[in-house]
Amino acid sequence: MRTIAKITKVELRLLFCSPIAWLIIIIFGIQTSIAFCNLFGNMVEGQPLGMSLFSVTKRLFADRFGLFSQVQQYLYLYIPLLTMGVMSRERSSGSIRLLFSSPVTNRQIILGKFVGLSVFALALLGVLLVYAVFCCFVVKDFDFIALISAFAGIYLLTLSYSAIGLFMSTLTSYQVVAAMTTLATLTLLNLVGTVGQKIAFVRDITYWISIQGRADEMMKGLLCSEDVLYFLLVSAAFLAFAILKLNFERKKAPLKTRILHYAGVCLATVFLGYLSSRPILKCYWDATCTKENSLLPNGQQVMKQMDGGLTVTTYVNLLDECFTYGLPANRNEDIRRFRDHIRFKPTMKMKYVYYYDKTENESLEKRFPGMSDEQKAKELAEGMELNLEKFLTPTQIREKIDLSSEGNRFIRILERSNGQNSVLRAYDGASPMPGEGEITAAMKRLVRKPIQIAFLTGHGERAIDRKADRDYFRFAQDITDRKSLVNNGFDCRKINLQYDSLLADSVDILVIADVKTPLDTMELAAIHRFMEAGGSLLIAAEPGRQAAMNPIVAPLGITFKTGQVVVDSTDFKQNIVFGRITPDCARQARMLQWMRRWNYRVSMPDAVGIEINNLTDSIAVVLATDSVNSWNELRTVVFDDLRIKRAVDEPEESNILGLQLIRQQNGKPQRMLIMGDADFLSNGESNNYRQGVLIDNDLFIKEMMMWLTDHEFPIDDRRPRSPDDAIYVSVESIPAVKTAIIGGLTFLLLCIGLIINIVRKVK
Q1: Where in the chain is the domain with CATH 3.40.50?
Q2: Which residues have C-beta within 8 Å of that of residue 11, sequence separation ≥ 6?
Q3: Which of 2.40.30, 3.40.50, 2.40.40, 1.10.3430 is the CATH number of 449-708?
Q4: What confidence tens digit (pLDDT) does each residue in 387-401 have?
Q5: What is the pLDDT of residues 510-566, one digit of tens each?
């Protein structure tokens, strides 16, 4: 160790007395300070303009365009320049012979020089630390702990680059050649991840070897043992190569022996890397204050309940639009979509089944008109260099599983070892793959019973199996829409009370929408028994249906008013009402607050007003016309811990469009949503656009369904807001800040460099 320390000391003297090294530090300081000041200045200038800040730490340092992302590009160029002369100058000056003849081993030489480079890398990190310390004083709740992971990522990346450059420097006496070969090697390591991705064995090796994006997760605040070990193994491998190179110079060895030694290092590195990439052996540390790199608590709870084995089988139809997401070449990226869930269930298995069968794909029909499915599959396989023999034929896949009910689309079957299974689909749109919310919903169906939601039929109600504008197909069971209930933990079905029984044990939510003809006594009695048993309801009325709807809600002390709500508007028809989120509704969820703050509305064509007749239940107004602007107009009473408010002495001129009711029935809270419009859930209105009005029916519907199920489904995939949402610097101070950081840091580095060189010359 003493010998290594002495070599390190000599190397540090050479580095810090080298004009190239100081030039690198100064240029690095100038570039990073300019980049930081630009990012920082843009945020500060946006505050007075009303642009709210969020996740300042991440946006400044770890974002896609953050400081650390730019630093990675600088290191890619600077480290080869720094390492090109570490061993090359020993060769060109002839001092390598003195080293070989001295009582110093090759291992000590390489490790001593590498430690010197490692210390120099700390000097570069010291420059970045200046910006982080500055932010600690001027950014509200600056998340410095998360930057520990980011600094570790930058440092480990620098060490890997240094080890590679050190090895390349042992190969030649020409420093320029050493720098160029280092750049070439780094480029190769960035590109190797795309090599052999169609071959299973090769795919895993090249994907692991690739250095591209390896530090990205660490930049975001997530330390993973696989990434840390990757950098350590790569550094150790190239240091071993350098030591072997010097050993073979000191003592000649046959070509076969040299190849075996180098191959042994490679195999050992790949083997250890393979072990480190096994999910069961990985360790994680999410350094962010909001744990934004981890599954949300509801997802973690689901995975903890998932005892036994779990297999995710992906069925990839070559004739489907989304088939490329599951191809062997893209399999590693596809598996990464489940990375957070695998983290909490490391024994999860991922399987892929490839086939071709008839599916709705208009693009394919236009490209291959008149061809059979088999001919289309052959054309696609030939064009994409795929082996069609590895794809099951329609007959073979149907013997294995019948996917006709899913339209033979891209789907995944999640199956537990106890036989329970769930379906996870791909969706239409620009981003067809499921996100954390959809994946967790499919997982949750394996550990708890899905929500059973029944839609009343038999009296002209809205249908869930028709795609007409006024029906509910998209809301209920459109498998191609990620927001549909069937994709978010619900089982939807129709119920006709003339033939079907309505039991609270078998139906969790009953939807009664736009009843056109009155229900008979038996049907009304069944609905009222369901209410008394504690079942949840969603009731939506329409103008002209009050006579049929009011007997349903009469036991609740509510009446749908006669007539129709109209508005005085020069831009829209008078029957189109835009419901406004009330303050008490907004308090229930952050996204409802967001809707109210930015004046997002719920479009409700042909709405009726709701009248409250008695005060037997806890009631909250969720939607109202603009005449109900605040709770100063409606006197309120707070009920127990639920903090649900009810309206008292409602003014005649107000138009309540939606109510939430909650009461204790059979020892559990019963929830009911009463709406004065049935069209806000319809196929046509969900995709409608109103010029000049901000509308988000889908978000409102999701929040209300979450409330009805007590936040069981849909999965709440919104992450907590990061507390670092303000900067205590005025716009007028930005020029002074830029001058102090850019000019002051550059001047400081220049002075330190000059002092060291002057002292060296004096000595």
Answers
A1: 449-708
A2: 86, 112, 113, 115, 116, 117
A3: 3.40.50
A4: 899 999 999 999 999
A5: 999 999 999 999 999 999 999 988 899 999 999 999 999 999 999 888 999 998 988
